[in-house]
Amino acid sequence: MDKKSNKKLDGRKKASIALLILAIVFFSINPIKTHLLSTNLKENDSDKIKIITESAKLKKQAKVKNVSSTTKPTSGNSAPASNSNQETSTENKATVGSASNENNSSNTGGEKNSSNEPINFESVQSLNLDMVRDAKGNVDYSSAIGAISIPNIDLLLPIFKGLDNHYLTYGAGTLKANQNMGQGNYTLAAHNYPDYPKILFSPLPKIKSNDRIYITDFGKIYEYKTEYIKLIEATDTFVINDTPNKTELTLITCNNDGSKRYLVKASYIGQSSFTDNTNETKSLFQLN
Predict the structure, then answer these.
(1) Domain ranges (residues) in the chain
(2) Fewer Cβ within 10 Å of end Cβ, the chain: N or C?
(3) Per the residue annotation, which of 48, 176, 191, 261 is the catalytic one?
(4) What tens digit of pLDDT does each residue of 272-286 get?
């Protein structure tokens, strides 16, 4: 074999090796990205207890401030009793509202549920590494409006108002602007991440009929009983609508390939006080 042929063989070998290296790099990129994303999601998940604790503490401080402001003695001439009560009521709304969560309206005369508001999934991005990393600097740890706990599937998450992409890397978001816990059809959505089945709403497909679901606005705990879980089309937005004379909870997340949605329906059982030093509250929401 002459030198020219040897050079051709060497060139083919080098090309083959280069292609092999490119193939290895190409096929290893996705697992690397998945690993990094999972790692960052786990870090976010570890902060959920801190978010729930800090948000509950803020709500408690706002409540104490509210009570203090309404019981503070006034100097000078007193206003007529009817006017005084009216002003107190207005002050209550302003103080609690400044703590700011949509569920406070249930105690302060807020608006009723907005039943026909569509699910705006178009604004929700798929989980990606940049978004999860960016969330660490864009999420206020005391801004949760509540929390959800499903003990039988080991699910515990903070609840945030709306479907902000950064906040959805930490917890669940509300699907209607003016809904109240324990009233109408309270609806929540969160991500399903198949590569890490313990994160966010990923455990939801394991839920069973009669499993208890607890949500709180840090003022009360609302208990629901699971009726069923099923797959629905992504276009089935009617599931968030209120049903006359029915109080229920609706949970929604994507299936593993994102083509459909898992829908969980639960019926309302009752409510109890959220007191951060009771065994029940500590057990359900793992308060520090």
Answers:
(1) 39-70+83-285
(2) N
(3) 191
(4) 999 877 888 888 998
Q: Mark whether 166 is an active-site residue.
A: no
H helix or E strand, kind and range, residue 264: strand 260-273
Task: Specify the 3-state DSSP secondary structure of 158.
Answer: strand
Render pLDDT for 51-94 as a digit per residue (tens, 0 to 9).
999 999 998 888 777 766 655 554 444 433 333 333 333 222 22
Task: For residue 215, name the pLDDT band (cuts at 50, 70, 90).
Answer: very high
| Cα separation, 189 vs 198, whole angstroms | 16
SS3 state of residue 241? coil
- For the chain, helix, strand, coil in percent to 5 are 40, 20, 35
**The two three-digit tokens of residue 79, written as one number:** 């206003």
> What is the CATH topology of the domain spanning 39-70+83-285?
Sortase; Chain: A; (2.40.260)
Of the candidates 254, 263, 264, 266, the residue annotated as catalytic is 254
Query: How far is the C-alpha of 55 from the C-alpha of 201, rounded, in Å?
Result: 20
Rounded-to-10 torsion of CA 225, 267, 182, 213: 20
Provide the residue count of the chain.
288
Considering only CA atoms, which of 162, 158, 157 is closest in space to residue 178?
162
Token pair listed for 257: 């390939």
Q: Give the rounded percent of residues in the chain with a pLDDT score beyond 90.
A: 47
CB 102 within 8 A of CB 177: yes
Mean pLDDT computed over 159-173: 94
